[in-house]
Amino acid sequence: KTPLKQAATSQLVLAERPSESQPLTTPPKGKEAPPADPWTPTSNLKMLISAASPEIRSREQRKQETNSPADVLQEKHSLQEHFLGDEYEKSQPSRKEKSLGLLCHKFLARYPDYPSTAQKSYICLDEVTEELHVERRRIYDIVNVLESLHMVSRLARNRYIWHGKHNLPQTLQALKKVGEENKYIEQIQLIKKREYEHEFDADGEQKEETASSLGSSEQSEMPFVELPGVEFHAASVNGRKYKSLRVMSQKFVMLFLVSTPQIVSLDVAAKILIGEDQLEDLDKSKFKTKIRRLYDIANVLSSLKLIKKVHVTEERGRKPAFKWTGPEVLPNSQDTKLEATSTACSPPVSESSRSKEHCSKNLFPSKGKQNFTRHSSLIKLIKSIENDRRKIQSAPTSPVKISTSTYQSLPVFPSTIAQLPAISKPQPEAQPKTAEEMQMKGAPEVVPKPEPIQQSLGVCPVSHSSVSPVILPHPHSGVSYAIYLQPSQAHTVTTYSPSFMLQPLPCANVTGINSNNSKVLNKITTEEGDNQIAMAEPTKPLAAEERPEMKSETSSQRCLKRSLALQENNLIKRHRSDKESLGTSLTFFPSGYLIPFTHCTHGNKADSSSKEKAGLCSLQHPTYTSPITGVIPMTASELKTVNIPAFHITPLNIMLAPNSIAAAPVLSNTCLNSSNSNSVQNPGSSALNFMLQHIGLVPAGVQVPANPVVQHVPISSQPENIIHNSGNTNVQEGKVRTNCTLAVAEFTSPPPPLNESHFLSSLQPSAPKEPQEPQAVTENFFRTPGGPNSGSSLSANSDGTERTSQGTLYIPQRKLEVSED
DNA sequence: ATCTCCCGCCATATG
DNA sequence: CATATGGCGGGAGAT
Questions:
Q1: CATH number of the domain encompassing residue A265
Q2: In angstroms, what is the C-alpha Rg of chain A?
Q3: Which residues does the annotated region (Disordered) include (predicted)?
Q4: What does pTM read for this prediction?
């Protein structure tokens, strides 16, 4: 019934080339391809565009509709005859033209992203299938994942409601939360670790599986994550109904939202999605099926522009993965938000939070240590900041009452902001309960101005509170840097910090801190340090050419991975046991340092309760408790691997008095941002400016543009998000290749004033370069002020360690390969 | 060969 | 019971 592709194709070919005497064999694609490959990126784009355009679409349909091969042939023929070399010609219904992604595009084209909330728009499956000329089955695939995002919901048979993206923010936030609670990060780590261990097959030694710590915890059959206003309609209340695709899709999205390089490889995703039920069963077929489904899901998510396909390259070659390209989802800190609301009398938790809580409880009942306790000072700081931010956001416009719901995030959808006001008004009678939700979007400010922020920050008890770094994860790029500046003491302390790498530096030595904490820390760090140092073993070359001078370092890296993987558990356990004390009486902080939050994830394993002390994470996290000065040298090859469990960058920790200042915006690298040019000025920049000015790095009138370096200033309550960094990620997406090296210098003394240009250049050395152009970029961030060779702060030591002349150290090189298809 | 993933059988759910 | 949904996995196009 359906026009057979082969038939059409061969006929076409025959028609074109009578001389060819290959009747029914698959026609060599070379035939029609050369003139104008219909599926080059360009044509693909064209296709998409046409799909979006009603007229063209219908025309297209008509064409496809023509079941008569003759017609098609005719058309094709003429097309090719008359438009030789012309890039447009639909060509036969190739497989791609039937792809779910394309279909999804067509589907989406039928409905507005933000339909009027006034009246609901319905979707009739019959119509759709007819108009789009697809089997019903396919529509289900699309609808199902749309359902998972609450972009549609089912009403009844053949009947769905189109919500568009109105719910997307909430959905994503909810999903992120659930994902966090599900400890997906840890699961990911576990899987990756196992992959690693698999590599080093030849070791059966202390296989002290971490499984014990993790495996047992998960069990919950995660049901479909619902949204307050968008419950599953119809009688499908029954539980077990929510099967795969919907839930799978949600889980998949969760993975993106929780993992810090927002990149998820297919196999990892598949394993996690499978393994949730039964741990580790190498069921090949099951795996394959899962992968298939993931592709399906990924296709529609791609159509939604939420993700895009990339490749991660690691030792074993490259594997398919997807990168989140959707909106950032801020961590929701409901606690502060609730109290911040105008409502004096403690109203019950907002519908949304409630439902989310409920949901997550259901999902992950076990160790639900819901109530966090933050370091008091931290809480203050956070609240203060959030409060201010809130003010700022609502200030410019009307004194809108921002509801308790969590969505007062920074503008994530610059392009859609205009539409927000429309949806800010609650739906009249539809869902009384959801009214609250609906209004939460109340007028987010487009571009928070720097000044307000500064003021607000100024209000913060900066000088009194204990240090709490403000972390600014960059939404799209992998690296985030936190600046721990400690005006008065940094100086003293840093003096002690040798910039040698791999040299364990017991905290106690630096500052005579006495607490047992320090002992513990010391112990831990030492071990870690030993391990790191101890290793030495031949390495595989790989991207060595890029950094010849680092060759020697590779070996240790490699060993490190493994060793860390092995001992990770121990560290974690130990760490955990000490956690309490650490959390309460910490007196040392990293300082005078730019700390790349590169992959400090281990500590969070089995540590669900540490979520709170966001600002203190660096203290609690094993990674940070290891006062290894400098950086572990790494090679490009090492960096390539995404989330190598064992990979660690350990910054120096320095004991500081509790009253140190903690302004700490994070600078994220710009390496990956070549394509993200749409950023807007945001609070991040203000924070940075404030901080810099406050500290004297930048003269008080100068503003450092945040874009694209600095993003918002969320005081995250989820360390994982910040901590997990993607630094060591090699992504291939497109043909863009970026190779960047980041240099971080420590401010050894009250930094000398910098002029703006200098600062800027330090920040974004690559700015002048063409953003979209494939190229290699090497840049140094933050050279030592006044330091000698500001241009070559990086140098290799005889021992292979990398360091800079002065107090500058660091910088692992990051090689990011981005290649789009 | 591997990566993608379309197709459609057929078990279930729904009405 | 007739349909609507939607797991699932073979196997073929794309690379």
A1: 1.10.10.10
A2: 28
A3: 1-74, 337-367, 751-821
A4: 0.45
